[in-house]
Write a structure and sequence with these properties.
single chain; 143 residues; alpha/beta; Hypothetical Protein Ychn, Chain: A; five-stranded parallel sheet; 7 helices
């Protein structure tokens, strides 16, 4: 029995190595994922200014990802609604083609729905869509 398990293990390793070698020999690129969702939850403006904004903007402008969505969730909702500086940067992301979405439940809790909608942000309930993102081939990164 142990001998059969050992032989089966060696066989699986052999198959795995051959698959890797054939991919490398054929110079087949690894398929790129196309969609990035940046889940922004932080109430710290430095997180937006030093991480979320530049990464989101460059991800779209440099075509690192075909689709980039910024999902405004939780405390970041209040921060954005109260900061004219961040609102200007949000407009820059929109112009670059980043899709802007906000969780309606969060926006309602912070009384920010109207402000966000005025900025052109799609404010909708996001619990199920976020779950779908996480269960799909989209990549979700959280700040």
């Amino acid at each position: 029995m142990k001998r059969m398990i050992l032989i089966a293990g060696i066989f699986l390793v052999f198959i795995h190595c051959n698959q890797k070698d054939s991919q490398t020999m054929n110079n087949e690129p690894t398929p790129k994922l196309k969609s990035l969702v940046i889940l922004w939850t932080s109430s710290d403006p430095e997180v937006f200014n030093k991480v979320v904004f530049p990464y989101g903007l460059n991800s779209k402008k440099q075509e690192w990802w075909q689709e980039v969505e910024l999902l405004i969730w939780g405390p970041s909702t209040k921060l954005l609604a109260e900061s004219a500086e961040l609102q200007e940067k949000i407009k820059t992301l929109q112009t670059a083609g980043v899709v802007l979405t906000s969780c309606r439940w969060c926006a309602d809790q912070y009384e920010a729905t109207y402000t966000l909608e005025k900025l052109g942000i799609d404010v909708k309930y996001m619990g199920k869509p976020l779950t779908d993102y996480l269960q799909s081939d989209k990549r979700v990164i959280t700040f």
